[in-house]
Amino acid sequence: MASTGKITLNDIMKNRNIKANEFNTTGYKRIELSPYDVVPSQSNFYSQENIEELADTFLVVGQQQPTVLGKVNGEFRILSGHRRNLANIFNIERGYKQYKKVEYLYKEMTEVFFELSLIIGNAFTRKLTPYEEAEQIRRLKEALIKARDEEGLEIKGKLRDLIAEMLNTSSTQIARMESINNNLIEEAKQQFKEGNLNTTSAYETSKLPEEAQKEIAEKVSKGEDIKAKEIMEMVLEKKRADKEKVSESDTEDNRNLATIDLDTGEIVEQKIPNYLNITTAKLIKDYNTDELASFFCNKCLNLAGGNGCAGICDYAVECNGKNNHEICVKWLKAKI
């Protein structure tokens, strides 16, 4: 893909290689560069471990796969092979001059296409941690929205379904990870990153209020083993408490619908609530954009367990819990 031109989903999917443990480099050119002249991607969120061991391997059997680059605005940025490039630098700095220039593969591309290629190209090169999977989904969603808004990428259907297809997983798994990304507080997210919370535990924790999440994060950070089942019970308890509040509210409303004769205990007047005379379809049809936004925001919050955004619209990545109504209005205006 050149640095100009409209991005298509086919261009993006070409970088995906599910079966092989390598980046798909069809159409890339060869070039020799200094490892110091290529730029590590700021978007790289994958683990960089065992560099010295990899550098030792290069001394014995050589570098079997070249590092893959994207040339963005004249700058060579690493797409795949961050560890390989660090291993080459490690060998240079311990005196092996033959690594001062090594072979790379590169292709010219735009900023947005580079980000998409980085995520998709690395999606299947190794097994990711649950935290890396969640981060991968977040970055991919952001990049797709940016490609749509800035470079005219045509996205048909639900964004969540597209991401699931691109990452060879289920829409349900994407929804779980989105709940973690959108609703898990930073303290709990750090424990998720460190492996102290697994995916199920992190997902269930994301449904809880902030204080409950802080309590769980603090406990697991101190080594306490909190099972996912325990967290699920906390979520169920919260739902039961919420239902009781709603029930109490309904009872109070019902009292206002009838006038009772205190001497006889008979109902002398009963009012019919206005909402019973209107169908749901007509009610929604008569909503203005602002009212519809409130309706969908409430639905989105309920899907997320009452704590943050569940990500049902294309602009969910911009939602921070405080601007949710504004984001929902923006989404509706784009749809209407």
TrEMBL record:
<protein>
    <submittedName>
        <fullName>Chromosome partitioning protein ParB</fullName>
    </submittedName>
</protein>
<dbReference type="InterPro" id="IPR036086">
    <property type="entry name" value="ParB/Sulfiredoxin_sf"/>
</dbReference>
